[in-house]
Amino acid sequence: MKIALVGNQNSGKTTLFNYLTGMNAKIGNWPGVTIEKKTGKIKGTEHEITDLPGIYSLSPYSIEEEISRKFVFDEKPDVIINIVDATSLERSLYLTTQLMELDCKVLIALNMADLLEKKGIEIDTKKLEKKLGTKVFKISALKETGINDLVKEIDNKDDLTRTKIYDDKLEESISNISRGINKKHSRFIAVKLLEDDSRFSTESNEHISSIKNELEKNYDTDLEEVIAEERYSFIEKTKKECVKEKQIVETFSDKLDKIFLNKWIAFPIFVVVMFLVYYLSVGVVGTATVDWVGENMDAFGEWVGTTLENAGASDWVNSLVVKGIIAGVGAVLGFIPQLIILFLCISLLETTGYMSRISLLFDKIFRRLGMSGKSLIPFIVGSGCSVPGIMGTRIIENQDEREMTSILVPFIPCSAKLPIISLFAGYFFGESSGVASASLYFFAIVVIIISAFILSRTIFKHTSSSYICELPEYKVPSAKYVLKDVFDKVVAFIKRAGSVILICSIVIWFLLSFSFKMEYGVDIENSMLASIGKTVSWVFYPVLGQNNWGATVSAIQGLVAKEQVVSSMAVIAGLAEDVEEGSEIFADGTPFAGITAAAAYAFMIFNLFSAPCFGAIGAMQRELGSTKRMLKAVLFQTGCAWILATIVYQIGSRIEDGTINPANLVVILVIALAVISILFSRFKKGKNGCANCPYCKNCK
Fold first, then answer.
1. CA-CA distance, 428 to 592, in Å (whole number)?
2. Residue 593 lies in a domain
3. What are the backbone dihedrals phi and psi of residue 38, each rounded to the nearest 5 degrees, phi first?
4. Is the four-CA dihedral 341, 342, 347, 352 of positive or negative sign?
5. Residue 248's pLDDT is what?
6. CATH code of the domain containing 150
């Protein structure tokens, strides 16, 4: 039996799906669309269930709604489970009234039933069943209660009669039209024809047109508006009959929102929260775990080398395995403890409901930049990996806003960039590594804001988007869900290290071990890689203050995968004279010796903002629609990275040698930010998308 799980966003759909399937879901993309698709089997049954994207109606105003409706019509599910937020019944039932018009069994699951008493809400499920004409179950996906009764009902015959929700005149017209439609879901199609839905225009004929004309004369308004009003009227009556609300004191979530959404302290709280996230993952806790893993990886490398030597393996085989594969892949895997902490923190922020508040906070800023709070969702996803972050821009309806967001998503520090940040921050900034790492996150936010401001007034001038944000209740995270989420992300990272990085490490080892004459064991300075790096190292002279071929080659490797920057450096340092361990990357005698703290910070800046990995570039190409536009985006990103890194090094190096007084620099930066803020407030976008509102004639 085929089952569809349908509901609003933040209604607990995914939590219910994970419980029903035992979290053993197959993940993929909808055909031709990059929105994630989850399908699995309900535990103990052969029923296949598909988790549809969160939607608010079956009218295809967004790609998610288009996907859900297409699934209902093309895949023909036997049962639809409509998961409804029991604490917000009035908002959730609009989608339910549309599902009731379909010719398939619909079960209503009132989720978050455990919160009803706390909110002083009492729902009479028996009355609600009579009003909706279908079975209704109170459940709690989080507490795992009431779900067994819901599953048992799937196999039972649906013998309830659906209630009519429109007035007599409209109901008569819908019945008249549906009788002439020889397809499944004829009532749903009839309603859509009255709403002038172009996707069902082939069903239209003179008879239907005459009915529509007569109704429009009778109501003297647009039929789509009439149908919507009838739905809301039905929902309001249903709520009055089936729901009793007691007057209670403000909820715990309301109290928390007075703090986290306070106009004066909301942003400072966000800054502190994100600082703690990076301080924990890269700072004290993360560094301690990386040191422990690093020691074990070194010991493992020595053991493998000794074993191969005793087995009589050739020197080049020993070098390939130990100094190529283990040094390269191991250098990246050593940062897994930090990634676990980062993923754990982000997952906790998402599941508690705090991230929804952040998207609302940033909506006001983003709207001035030609984006909306909806753009924040891809940025949050992009903190794990840029590829799904870029693909997540599909949720944005406005094309210019969607394309601009897909270009800017790679600017946010993703998990692949964390090893670079950890390596340089840990070595050059010591106990302040957490502060240095967090500063890069906020640096990225500033760059994204400035870039969006420029792009929305030069290339993407037609961005005008609204954002409706639903704030879920603050919840205690489900340990099972959080751990599964972190586990999946870590496994994906390890798979990447075991494939792309493994291949790249072998290539780097080969280029380092051989000269162009194919001589093995040559001095590192005479290797193929050194020759290539020295040819282009001048490009990074303004960034590093020296022609460093090793850093140049490593940065270029970042185009394949950002993790490969650290892997490449480990392999290069591991093959230098008197260096046994990849952890001694910056020791004297390696190609990276002589890099200063200013150059290290500038190098991190370049890798943070330069063109992302090949996977993310491919995702950008799909979202931007052409290779030419993708190449322009890559040039923009890399150009920004080089300019920012150069500025950072030139200022930082002068602070290091005492040429610039840090106090004077702070004063100059404060004045510059004040000037930018004034310009920003005066040149905000108006209703017509112009850049000089409120002074233009159109927007006065």
1. 13
2. yes
3. -120, 130
4. positive
5. 58
6. 3.40.50.300
Determine the residue type at 661: N
Structure pTM?
A: 0.60
Look at residue 247 and tell me if it is in a domain. Answer: no
**Could you tell me the strand order of the sheet in which 2-7 lies?**
26-29, 36-41, 48-51, 2-7, 79-85, 105-111, 136-138
Secondary structure (3-state) at 700:
coil
Residue with tokens 């004279």: 577
Strand partners, 4: 50, 80
pLDDT value, residue 654: 84
**Residue 344, Cβ neighbours under 10 Å: how many?**
19
Is the domain of 151 the same as that of 194? yes
425 & 529 share domain: yes
Is the same domain home to 295 and 213?
no
428's tokens: 């050059």
In this structure, are residues 630 and 621 in contact, taking their beta carbons and an 8 Å threshold?
yes
State residue 28's pLDDT score: 46
Q: What is the distance between the alpha carbons of residues 499 and 98, in angstroms, rounded to a whole number? A: 47
Alpha carbon distance 525, 184 (integer Å):
73
Contact 99, 80 (CB under 8 A): yes
User: Could you give the CA distance from residue 269 to residue 283 in angstroms, rounded to a whole number?
Assistant: 19
- For residue 379, CA distances in Å to 134, 444, 553, 612 come to 40, 11, 28, 14
> How high is the pLDDT of residue 297?
65
For residues 97 and 165, the answer to whether their CB atoms sit within 8 Å is yes
Helices 223-242 and 125-132, interaxial angle, to 10°? Answer: 150
Residues 584 and 613 placed together within one structural domain of the fold:
yes
Determine, yes or no, domain membership for 508.
Answer: yes
Do 654 and 660 form a contact (C-beta atoms < 8 A)? Answer: yes
Q: Facing residues of 606 across strands? A: none
C-alpha 38/C-alpha 612 separation (Å) is 27
Count of structural domains, the chain: 3
Q: How high is the pLDDT of residue 30?
A: 45
Question: How far is 123 from 69, CA to CA, in rounded Å?
Answer: 29
Residue 607 in tokens: 């890798």
- Cα dihedral angle (552, 556, 562, 564), rounded to 10 degrees? -80
Q: Which residues of the chain have pLDDT under 50?
A: 26-34, 575-582, 683-700
Burial of 69 (0-12, 13-18, 19+ CB in 10 A): buried
* Pair (384, 502) in one structural domain: yes
Is 145 found in the same domain as 8?
A: yes
359 and 501 inside one domain: yes
Residues 392 and 331 in one domain: yes
User: What distance in Å separates the CA atoms of residue 467 and residue 369, rounded to the nearest whole number?
Assistant: 14
d(CA 548, CA 408): 29
Q: Is residue 612 part of a domain?
A: yes
> Given the structure tokens 């990276």, which residue do they identify?
592
What interhelical angle do 223-242 and 168-179 show, nearest 10? 120
What range defines the domain where residue 472 resides?
A: 267-660
Q: What is the CA radius of gyration of the chain?
A: 29
In angstroms, the CA 248 to CA 472 distance is: 19
Positive or negative: CA dihedral 268, 272, 277, 282? positive
pLDDT of residue 291: 58
In DSSP notation, 335-384 reads THHHHHHHHHHHHHHHHHTHHHHHHHHHHHHHHHTT--GGGHHHHHHHTT
3-state secondary structure of 206: helix
